[in-house]
Amino acid sequence: MAKPIEATPTLRGADAVRFIKKMIKEERNPNPKRIAFIKKALNTKFHVVN
């Protein structure tokens, strides 16, 4: 039997500020390797066998 999904803890204080700064930085200047990985994943064709 699978384990239940646990809720993500709420970030507070310095952790929350650090997280927001990372998010803003990533939005302004996305990581080229991450973008390439996403594009490759979206172009991947899956073969479904019935």
What does this structure look like?
- By secondary structure, the protein is mostly helical.
- Helix content is 54%, strand content 0%.
- It has 2 helices and no strands.
- The chain has helices spanning 14-28, 32-43.
- It is flat, with a radius of gyration of 18 Å.
Chart the SSEs and their pairings.
Blueprint: H1 14-28, H2 32-43
**Element string (H = helix, E = strand):** HH
Rg over CA atoms, rounded to whole Å, is 18 Å
What overall form do the CA principal axes indicate? flat
Number of DSSP strand runs: 0
Number of helices: 2
Amount of beta strand: under 5%
Biggest pleated sheet: none
Estimate percent helicity: 40-55%
Distance between the termini: 26 Å
Low-confidence stretches: none
Structural class: mainly alpha
Q: What is the typical, i.e. mean, pLDDT? A: 89
Question: How would you briefly describe this protein structure?
Answer:
The chain has 50 residues and is mostly helical. It has 2 helices and no strands.
Features:
50 residues, mainly alpha, 2 helices, 54% helix, flat
